[in-house]
Design a protein that fits this description.
The complex is a heterodimer of chains A (about 110) and B (about 110). Chain A is mainly β and about 110 residues long. Chain A contains no helices and eleven strands. In chain A, the strands form two sheets. In chain A, strands 2, 4, 5, 9, 10 and 11 form a six-stranded mixed beta sheet that branches. In chain B, strands 2, 4, 5, 6, 9, 10 and 11 form a seven-stranded mixed beta sheet that branches. A four-stranded antiparallel beta sheet of chain B has the order 1-3-8-7, with no helix packed on it. Chain B starts with a strand and ends with a strand. The mean pLDDT of chain B is about 95. The chains are: A mainly beta (about 110), B mainly beta (about 110).
Chain lengths: ~110, ~110
């Protein structure tokens, strides 16, 4: 079982719509979860962190965490062409204090 | 806004040569990390460093790799004898207080081993 799984995409979403990105993880004891955005050829840029079950909102971004289902998601409202990037889910593994990244989901916002 | 910086942006080396990648973490951060990303693949953890010691390291971080904080601002990754498969982007990151805390990444160094 892969430690952090994401659908690789590409996920195509019309401009102005909601983009929904999903991630599952294997370590049930994990407590810290992060979403990063990575433009091609650039470094990961932190978007959100989430530690508790439920929703966390920051501007157009909402992170959702369900520890029972080992599932974390990122919603992007009012999607803009500049949101086109790869979104990386990162999970702090409880067993060994390392952050494991998923392979990322490529998001394409259609103008 | 404070940021992590890395030098050089691109390093080309011959197989078997030693390379040192340099990073200046955010000034009040205490935890430092190195990651690598082979082209088209996921970001992989290499090592975490706190209080002048390695906290955690991955299987990738073998005896060919070492890290050092030579002074109050720099954090370095040394690869002693580079292999072709070491070609990748190497990212430095830092966090204020532990791996549970948000990590901020530098722009990366692209290492090309010929």
């Amino acid at each position: 079982q892969k430690e952090v799984e994401q659908n690789s995409g590409p996920l195509s979403v019309p401009e102005g719509a909601i983009a929904s990105l999903n991630c599952t993880y294997s370590d049930r004891g994990s407590q810290s979860f992060f979403w990063y955005r990575q433009y091609s050829g650039k470094s990961p840029e932190l978007i959100m962190s989430i530690y508790s079950n439920g929703d966390k909102e920051d501007g157009r971004f909402t992170a959702q965490l369900n520890k029972a289902s080992q599932y974390v998601s990122l919603l992007i409202r009012d999607s803009q062409p500049s949101d086109s990037a790869t979104y990386l889910c990162a999970v702090l593994m409880n067993r060994d204090d390392k952050i494991i990244f998923g392979k990322g989901t490529r998001l394409h916002i259609l103008p | 806004e404070p940021e992590v910086t890395q030098t050089p942006s691109h390093q080309v080396t011959q197989m078997g040569q030693e390379v040192i990648l340099r990073c200046v973490p955010i000034s009040n951060h205490l935890y430092f990390y190195w990651y690598r990303q082979i082209l088209g693949q996921k970001v992989e953890f290499l090592v975490s460093f706190y209080n002048n010691e390695i906290s955690e390291k991955s299987e990738i971080f073998d005896d060919q790799f070492s890290v050092e904080r030579p002074d109050g601002s720099n954090f370095t990754l040394k690869i002693r004898s580079t292999k072709l498969e070491d070609s990748a982007m190497y990212f430095c990151a830092s966090s204020a207080s532990g791996t549970y805390n948000e990590q901020f990444f530098g722009p990366g160094t692209r290492l090309t081993v010929l």
